[in-house]
Amino acid sequence: MHEQAPLLQATRREQHGSRYCQRVRKAGGLPAVVYGHGREPISITLDSREAVRHFQAGEKVFRLDFPGKKEADELQIVLLKDLQFDYLGTNIVHADFARVDLNERVRTRVAIHLIGESKGLKTAGAILMHPVNEIEIECLVLEIPEFIEVSITDLDAGQVISAGDVKLPSQNMKLLTDPHSIVAQIVVQVEVKVGEEAAAATSAEPVVLTAKKPAEGEAAKPGAKPAAKK
């Protein structure tokens, strides 16, 4: 894992503030911070295109290398903890990393990949719902998976796969997400039709509140409604 983790070139960032970070981003850099393991947090700059490419590939653990590094900036193993996006929610503008030991247990979120074609989708009006696309687990840094595959081949209409049903790759892993959270579900949409009787009921004759009162001794006409009382 140590040797296979992507290597990111990092440079220390002495200046802080939103304006300075904007200049870093315009120059193709990605502002980030590294903290943890009883050491002082440090602000760094990464190559934005390289870092984002690894993030989008689902990488979690990285090796940070500092060109011209000092003793305090030796090669560090870090875990991606958080990403911040712009106001549109499309571009990554900041990253948080935590220093880790390869043998320690950490909490992390892992993407869920649904595989197979559900037999329930053959039902008329059936659609696949995927409310939860990642789960949180606790595991060794060495065992962090890039993603977890969940087969939906046998998922029928009306059935649900919850987080508790997901088989974790290792027995040493612990599920932290609510086990009742829905990972996949086949829902059948039902078309509601209005019958002729219901339509007829909506077009019933309105109540007449100002019907003419029959003259004295004159019988009321069939179907006429009494006049409203004043």
Walkthrough of the structure:
This protein is mainly beta and 230 residues long. It folds into 2 domains: 1-101, Ribosomal Protein L25, Chain P, CATH 2.40.240; 103-192, RNA Polymerase Alpha Subunit, Chain A, domain 2, CATH 2.170.120.20. The protein is 11% helix and 37% strand. It contains 3 helices and 13 strands. It has a 6-stranded mixed barrel. It has a 4-stranded mixed sheet with strand order 10-7-9-12, with no helix packed on it. Strands 8-13-11 form a 3-stranded antiparallel sheet, with no helix packed on it. A hairpin with a 6-residue loop joins β5 (76-85) and β6. The longest helix is centred in the N-terminal third of the chain and has 9 residues, at 18-26. It is elongated and about 65 Å long. It starts with 6 loop residues before the first strand and ends in a 28-residue tail after the last helix. 18% of the residues are buried.
Number of strands: 13
Classify the beta-strand content into a percent band.
35-45%
Specify the CATH architecture of the largest domain: Beta Barrel
| CATH homologous superfamily label of the largest domain | Ribosomal Protein L25, Chain P
Q: Provide the domain count.
A: 2
Overall geometry comes to elongated
Which features does this protein show?
13 strands, mainly beta, 230 residues, Ribosomal Protein L25, Chain P, single chain
